[in-house]
Amino acid sequence: MDCLFCKIVAGDIPARKLYEDEHVVAFHDISPAAPVHFLVIPKKHINTLNDLTEDDKALAGHILFTAQRLALEQGCEAGFRVAMNCNPQGGQTVYHIHMHVLGQRQMQWPPG
Ligand code: 5GP
Ligand code: ZN
Description:
Elements: H1 4-10, E1 17-20, E2 24-28, E3 36-42, H2 57-73, E4 80-83, H3 87-90, E5 99-103
Antiparallel strand pairs: 1-2, 2-3, 3-5, 4-5
The structure holds guanosine-5'-monophosphate (5GP) and zinc ion (ZN).
């Protein structure tokens, strides 16, 4: 499958990895939108948030918990933002689900 993030999972494309376990990988975003900006992705290919199933509930929780733990490790005790973009109107550009974690600057609301 021609998926950029599957290639990062496989090690075929390099990434600055922060964390990896059996189910997820976290790596720094190539085009950071904040001093801390990393992505947490499942190793399993899932196109969009709409493709999550009941069977993925534990995986989705694991992605969120990993985001929280790594955000704190990256010094984001003062706060951070998590975001998952879904489909074109949601701003998704890479079709393998990923949780953005942004921190170390003041976030604004609403996002653009
Ligand atoms: P989306 O727009 O789909 O929510 O987010 C995709 C993110 O992946 C963007 O923030 C983009 O900068 C990041 N990205 C795209 N290609 C690469 C890559 O090859 N390596 C890394 N580390 N990040 C990437
Ligand atoms: Zn993929």
